[in-house]
Amino acid sequence: MTAKNDTTTDLALLGVLAVLWGASYTFIKIGVETIPPVTFIAARTLIAGGILLAIIRWRGLAMPRDAATWRRFAFQACLNSVIPFTLIAAAERSVDAGLATILNSTSPIFTFLLTALITRHEPVTTRKLVGVSAGMTGICLVIGTEALGGLGHELWAQLAIVIATISYAGAAIFGRGFKGLDPMLPAAGSMLCGAVMLVPLSLVVDHPWTLTPSLASVLALLGLSVFSTALAFVIYFRLIHTLGSVGTTSQAYLRVPIGVGIGAVFLGESLGPTAWLGMAFVVAGVAAMTIPVRKPAFAR
After folding, report:
1. Contact 246, 125 (CB under 8 A)
2. Is the dihedral of CA 239, 251, 17, 103 positive or negative?
3. SS3 letters for the chain?
4. How many CA atoms lie within 13 Å of 252's alpha carbon, on the beta-carbon side?
5. Whole-prediction pTM value?
6. Within 10 A of 92 (CB to CB), how many other CB atoms are there?
7. Are 92 and 227 in contact, with CB atoms under 8 Å apart?
8. What's the pLDDT tens digit per position in 190-247?
C-alpha cells in the first residue's frame, strides 16, 4: 500500500472514530437514566474488553504475559477509561449530551499543553498557540454562564468533563508507548484492567442486582460498548501510531457537530447562544491545531 493510500485510510478511520465517539454522548445520556454511572461504565469496559479479547483469540494473537506490560495497561485504563468514562457518565446526569461533546472535544488542546510542558515530542508553533487560546475561550464561554450564576450542580458536572478531557489528553500521549503491539492488545488490555477496577466498586456502591434498567438504557449500553468503545479503541490505537497523539485527537473538531447533531435529533437538545459561540471557538481552535498545513510547492 502506498503512502498516499495509507494517509487516505487514516483520514477515513479518523472520520469513523469521530462518528463513533460523537454518538457515545447520546448513548451515555440514555444509559445513565436508569443505570448508575459506576455500574454503567463497569459494564461498558467489561463488555468491550470481552469482545476485544474474543477477537484477539479468533485472530490467533496472544495477550502479553509480562507484569510490566499489564501495569502499563492498568495505567492506560485509568487515564483512558476508569477516570474519564466515570466522570462523563456522572456528569451527563445533569449536562446535555451536546454540551458534553463540546467540552470533551478540547482533548487536542490539553494534549498539546501536556506535550509542550512535559513530553515535548511534538513542535510548538504559533498556529497551535492560537488554537489553544481559541479553544480555552470556547470552554470559558460554554461554562461561563454557570460560573456567573454561582457554583451550581451543573457547573461541577461541566468541570468534571473538563477533568475527564485532561485525562484523555494524558492517555493519548501515554498510548504512544504501545507502538510495538498490535492495536487490539492495548485496547483489550486497558478495557479489561478497567473492568477489574470498576466491577468490584460497582458491586459495593450500586448493588447492581437490585437495579431495573429500562430497555433503552440496556440498548444504549450495548451500542456504547460494541461500537463506541470496542471498535473505536481499535481504531484509536492504530491512529496513535500513524498520526501521532495530537493528530489522533483531531477527530475532536469533527465529533463536535456530530455529537451535537445526534443529541438534537434523538434527545431534542438545543444549545443556547453562548454555547453556540463557545462551540465555534472550540472547533476553530482544535482545527487550527490539528489540520495539517500544506507546504507551498517550490518552482523548478
Report:
1. no
2. positive
3. CCHHHHHHHHHHHHHHHHHHHHHHHHHHHHHCCCCCHHHHHHHHHHHHHHHHHHHHHHCCCCCCCCHHHHHHHHHHHHHHHHHHHHHHHHHCCCCCHHHHHHHHCCHHHHHHHHHHHHHCCCCCCHHHHHHHHHHHHHHHHHHHHHHHCCCCHHHHHHHHHHHHHHHHHHHHHHHHHHCCCCCHHHHHHHHHHHHHHHHHHHHHHCCHHHCCCCHHHHHHHHHHHHHHHHHHHHHHHHHHHHHHHHHHCCHHHHHHHHHHHHHHHHHCCCCCHHHHHHHHHHHHHHHHHHCCCCCCCCCC
4. 35
5. 0.84
6. 26
7. no
8. 999 999 999 999 999 999 999 999 999 999 999 999 999 999 988 887 887 777 766 6
Q: For residue 290, what is its C-alpha cell?
A: 490539528
Amino acid present at 172: A
